[in-house]
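Q: what does this look like with 6-phosphogluconic acid bound?
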Amino acid sequence: MTGRTVLVHPDADALAHAVAARLITRIADAQAERGGASVVLTGGTVGIAVLAAVAASPARTAVDWAAVEFWWGDERFLPEGDPERNETGARSALLDHVPVDPARVHVMRGPDGPDGDDVEAAAARYAGELRDAAGEGEVPAFDVMLLGMGPDAHINSLFPGLPAVHEEKLTVVAVHGSPKPPPTRISLTVPAVRSAREVWVVAAGEGKAEAVRLGITGAPAAEAPVATALGRERTLFLLDRPAASRL
Ligand SMILES: O=C(O)[C@H](O)[C@@H](O)[C@H](O)[C@H](O)COP(=O)(O)O
């Protein structure tokens, strides 16, 4: 695993466009080198702004979108189409605007899915889908995992003080009692995050500055889940100036 690299941009808009350009290049490079690419999407304001910036970029034609595998780092356990689902935001920002292969868009199912209200079963189903795609091991070597981060230093649905951040075996877990609504979610775990080749933590705003500091200084996981976010080849903290103000 690698150290963390910090890249600071003037403001949230510049950040979203710079990360979008970087993402397009990363996917195009992975496709050129390996024939395919896999990306893990995130929710939140910045995560969705990045996807919208990708959709708006003329450079998006550098990517063969039908050959990209899309995964999610977490999902709110709500039915398909619910505006609060991370999937819904990603579809309207990007996936509805580029020619993706629906079979390569791997959503975490909600209560309207095949497992009904059984969120543990829905999490296990996603773990199975990851295992099937991995070939070897439990999780594919994602080319990029995008991670938004909360002011409490959570990533995916791994919140400070909840047990999921300490999960060492499972790659996907059900989360109950999330401090940020809705309370029930599905999340990739730390081992799944760390299987990514590159992990990009994307954060904007003064409200994230302390969490960024905790992440960069490697604070304990229970206090700052973001500190666990390390890619196998590269870990980037992509920030705007206010989010970097405590470094
Ligand atoms: O599931 C969620 O509640 C969100 O996806 C959340 O994890 C988000 O990614 C971060 O809180 C950053 O969000 P902002 O960029 O909006 O601050």
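The chain is about 30% helix and 20% strand. Residues 24 and 208 are 25 Å apart (CA to CA).
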